[in-house]
Specification:
The chain has 510 residues and is an alpha+beta fold. It has eleven helices and five strands; from the N terminus they run E-H-H-H-H-E-E-H-H-H-H-E-E-H-H-H. The chain has a five-stranded antiparallel β-sheet with strand order 1-5-4-3-2, covered by helices on one side. The radius of gyration is 38 Å and the shape is elongated.
């Protein structure tokens, strides 16, 4: 149904027809130029938005360092490597994307590796594209605030047949320019724009959560490589200790101070130690493959940091405050609010829409040799759909169901984050109690070996007692290594829950 005011119609005189036609053509040309400029502006805006979405590479840290194996656990690592950053190509793996990250030593800091991975990982690129898509959606909805201009032009021959006169053919031409501006729609457009803004906010938060997820995966993979490197080195030392004992036992047996049973027993111990080392070697290769699959580079090309998980958390920190700024949780909240705006938008479709319309028409030989003519109209109208089979009502019910789903998803995400944060807090609490104990156990086991060596030289200890002491040291080393990396991973998980891991790693603190 349409309701219009009384239109103002004026038939143009023949002397004004050329002027009116010129005005129509000029107006059409101006509208086309404006649309072209708007498209160029939108393209530039889109390019700028895409550039803003691209994350700048994190500046490399100069405070990376190397550390030994078990000694680094007890004494806190070795001196820091302070090679300056040089500009150049990395090689066959990354190409020009890694320029400016390599040091004179030919290696990258761990901060650089995280930055490069975040800038090239497909999951992060997908999240960036989704964010840009949502940003463009805002401008699409805003288009409803602007006038809609349509130009129609037709020209061609027209055959006229009349019973009272002979048939003839005329040249017919017609130009129509229609401009319509929305006046009021009961908040339909406003809520549509607000919904798009919230969807863009949600996409931005999902991108942040993806970056946090990838950063944690990189750190976990690299820590897994360091863990296996240290475990393998410890098992290698254990094998060498068994081999020295085997040589001593064989020499004693050949000199008549031992038996074949002693040799067999020491061989069994040595086989077990060698088997353990082989298993650690296999795990080390798996950790290298996992890191390479994620970062597309060998972990051996990364400078080993002097210190890991340089962040402290008190025992009484609030779990609720910890998950409050989690990007995944905030994203689900934004999704909730976007559905509420969508509901308001859909409810507005139940009401009429008011608009202003202006139309200019030029006609030449329409329905015969009528000459030239034209008209200009200006009106205000209302557009209202009386019946649609209940479709709009059902859409409102559907959106309400989606809102309930979004609320449940938000609560589920919150519970999962709280549970993970509580588990991490308990793990860190236990870790603080074990740190000193494990360090003391390693030192005590080493002292026992030193004492046993002196007693063995004096003939007061057997080779098997030496091997028992070596086994205790090996187990203490393994426990200390696993404990250190478990603690570091737990701290990084806590930072990931807070949405601070990527920024923390970017700071170079590690």
């Amino acid at each position: 149904m349409q309701m219009f005011g009384r239109p103002s119609t004026k038939v143009l005189r023949k002397s004004y027809i050329p002027l009116a036609l010129a005005m129509v053509v000029m107006l059409a040309s101006a509208c086309a130029t404006k649309n072209s400029n708007s498209s160029a502006t939108a393209t530039n805006s889109t390019s700028q938005s895409a550039a803003l979405v691209q994350d700048q590479p994190i500046r490399p840290s100069l405070n990376s360092g190397k550390s030994g194996f078990l000694k680094s656990f007890i004494r806190g690592g070795s001196e820091a490597d302070t090679d300056p950053i040089t500009t150049g190509s990395i090689g066959s793996q990354k190409g020009s994307q890694e320029k400016g990250y390599f040091r004179k030593s030919g290696k990258l800091s761990l901060t650089d590796v995280v930055s490069l991975t975040l800038n090239t990982n497909p999951e992060v690129d997908i999240a960036k594209a989704q964010e840009l898509d949502a940003e463009i959606g805002i401008e699409i909805e805003k288009a409803a605030y602007h006038p809609q201009v349509d130009l129609t032009a037709t020209v061609g021959p027209e055959h006229v047949h009349s019973e009272s006169a002979s048939s003839y053919v005329t040249d017919r031409g017609e130009v129509n320019l229609l401009v319509e501006q929305k006046l009021y729609d009961f908040g339909k457009t406003k809520n549509a724009v607000a919904r798009r803004r919230l969807l863009h906010e949600s996409a931005t938060l999902r991108k942040s959560d993806t970056r946090e997820k990838i950063a944690l995966e990189v750190m976990t993979a690299y820590l897994g490589y360091l863990r296996q490197s240290d475990l393998t080195a410890s098992s290698a030392r254990n094998v060498r200790a068994h081999q020295r004992m085997e040589n001593l036992v064989r020499m004693n047996a050949e000199g008549g101070n031992g038996t074949a049973a002693d040799v067999k027993r020491i061989e069994t111990r040595l086989d077990a130690a060698q088997n353990d080392k082989l298993q650690n070697d296999d795990r080390l290769e798996d950790s290298v493959a996992a890191f390479k699959r994620l970062t597309e580079m060998e972990p051996s090309r990364v400078l080993r940091p002097k210190r890991l998980a340089a962040v402290t958390l008190s025992n009484d920190y609030s779990i609720e405050a910890m998950v409050y700024n989690n990007p995944k949780l905030l994203s689900t909240a934004a999704d909730q609010r976007s559905l509420e705006k969508q509901l308001a938008h859909q409810k507005a479709t139940l009401y009429p829409e008011f608009f202003a319309q202006s139309e200019m028409t030029y006609k030449h030989n329409v329905s015969g040799e009528t000459g030239e003519g034209g008209e200009v109209k200006g009106l205000v109208g209302m557009r209202f759909r009386l019946y649609d089979g209940g479709k709009r009502r059902r859409l409102i019910d559907q959106i309400n169901a989606r809102i309930r789903e979004a609320n449940a998803r938000h609560r589920k995400t919150y519970r999962e984050l709280v549970q993970e944060a509580e588990q991490n807090r308990q793990a860190l609490r236990t870790s603080r109690e074990k740190t000193g104990f494990l360090s003391d156990s390693v030192q005590a086991a080493r002292k026992v070996i030193n004492v046993y060596e002196e007693q063995f030289k004096a003939g007061k200890r057997t080779p098997f007692e030496m091997l028992d002491a070596q086994r205790d040291l090996y187990r203490a080393e393994q426990d200390a290594i696993n404990h250190r990396y478990d603690t570091a991973i737990t701290k990084y998980k806590n930072l990931r829950i807070q949405g601070k891991l990527a920024d923390h790693l970017a700071s170079g603190k590690l």
